[in-house]
Amino acid sequence: MKSTLQNYKNIFSIIKNKKYLTLFIITLIFTALSYYYILSSSAEGILDFGKYYIYFDIVSSIIISFLISLLVTLTVYSYKIKVKNNNKFAVASIITTILPGSLCCTSVIPSILALIGFSTSFLVGNTGKIQSIFSVYGPLFIVVGAVIGWIGLTQITKDISAGCNIVKNAVNDECCESNYENKN
Questions:
Q1: N or C, which terminus of the chain has less Cβ within 10 Å?
Q2: By the 8 A CB rule, do 21 and 15 touch?
Q3: CB-based contacts of 43: which residues, under 8 Å, 6+ apart?
Q4: What would the pLDDT profile of 66-124 be if each residue is shown by its tens digit?
Q5: Residue 61 in contact with residue 139, Cβ under 8 Å?
Q6: Distance (Å) of CA 23 to CA 34, 36, 70
Q7: Where do the domains of the chain lie?
Q8: Helix, strand or coil for residue 17?
Q9: Cβ 24 vs Cβ 68: under 8 Å
Q10: pTM for the full model?
């Protein structure tokens, strides 16, 4: 538990640096606006939340964009300190959360099925059934994307903390929180 708290303290010490704070804020604004547009334009959550779906879209956009912005910022930082990380979680989180808005009620699924070679009668009869999965379970996709983002955040903070400990021990160099407390 103590090491987990230290890992999250490292996040705040990294974000204190102006260039990482700027990257975080720009990424946060861009992803929040993008996710809000994607979710609200597809009326994500309207089946579950009725007329209150817009609040679900706003909260989901903020949570997902916050996690993705932290993942992007920490990934950039991890490359700076030469720590190997697994940024597959960020990509998986992004893909999982945009699936419902991009595949429900669009021509993507029928086009893919037509390219595979399905007949027109199959497309007419089954495309709506396939697309309804993304409509009905859209909020679940968003929750799963947030969980994947949280797992990725936990993993990258462990990687950065481990990398900082190796650098401190090997080279006697300052890393992570002590580095940024002295600079800005």
A1: N
A2: yes
A3: 53
A4: 988 888 888 888 777 776 666 677 777 777 777 766 666 667 777 888 888 888 888 77
A5: no
A6: 16, 20, 9
A7: 2-183
A8: coil
A9: no
A10: 0.70
* CA pair distance 173, 52, nearest whole angstrom: 52
CA 144 to mean position of chain CA atoms: 10
Sorted by sequence, the CB contacts under 8 Å of residue 35 that are 6+ apart come out as 60, 61, 64, 65, 97, 98
For tokens 């190796």, name the residue. 166
CB atoms within 10 A of CB 10: 21
C-alpha distances in Å from residue 75, one per residue of 37, 72, 126, 168: 25, 5, 41, 20
Distances (CA, A) of 46 to 23, 65, 104, 175: 33, 21, 13, 47
d(CA 61, CA 33): 8
Q: Residues for the chain: how many in total?
A: 184
For residue 22, how many other CB atoms are within 10 A of its CB? 11
Rounded-to-integer distance, Cα 25 and Cα 6, Å: 23
